[in-house]
Amino acid sequence: MGKLLYVGTHGTDDPTRATMPFIGAVGALKRGHEPSIFLMGESVYLPKGNVADTVNGVGFPPLRQLLDEIIGAKVPIYV
Questions:
Q1: Alpha carbon of 13 to those of 8, 17, 31, 48, 74: distances in Å?
Q2: Is residue 18 in a domain?
Q3: DSSP tag of 71
Q4: pLDDT tens profile 32-57
Q5: Which of 13, 36, 67, 70 is the most buried (most CB within 10 A)?
Q6: What is the mean pLDDT of the chain?
Q7: Considering only CA atoms, which of 26, 7, 8 is closest in space to residue 18?
Q8: Is 36 buried (19+), middle (13-18) or exposed (0-12) by CB count in 10 A?
Q9: How many CB atoms lie within 10 A of CB 11?
Q10: pLDDT of residue 1
Q11: 52 is a domain residue
Q12: What is the share, in percent, of the chain residues with pLDDT greater than 90?
């Protein structure tokens, strides 16, 4: 399948937008693609420490759940 790059620029100030690249990557994984995530700006803090535990986008699973799935699948995250 295809290789996809998801770019994140938002942090904890906008949890819904912060969650978007992780939602996209998980969806791509489930469809057999090879996703990667590139974080820049405020989003670089999302995978650090307990920050992911505090991010809950509207209508999405908690970021911690998505991040655990992405890490488990060894999806590259570039900062």
A1: 13, 9, 30, 15, 27
A2: yes
A3: H
A4: 999 999 999 999 999 987 999 999 99
A5: 67
A6: 96
A7: 8
A8: middle
A9: 18
A10: 80
A11: yes
A12: 96
The pair of structure tokens assigned to 55 is 């991010």
| Residue at 78 is within a domain | no
Please tell me the total count of domains within the chain. Answer: 1
Residue 25 lies in a domain: yes
Average pLDDT of the segment spanning 25-37: 97
Residue 7's DSSP bridge partners are 38
Structural domain boundaries enclosing 58: 3-73
DSSP string across 23-67 = HHHHHHHHTT-EEEEEE-GGGGGTTSTTGGGG---TTS--HHHHH
Task: Name the pTM for this structure.
Answer: 0.93
3-state secondary structure of 8: strand
C-beta of residue 45 within 8 angstroms of C-beta of residue 51: yes
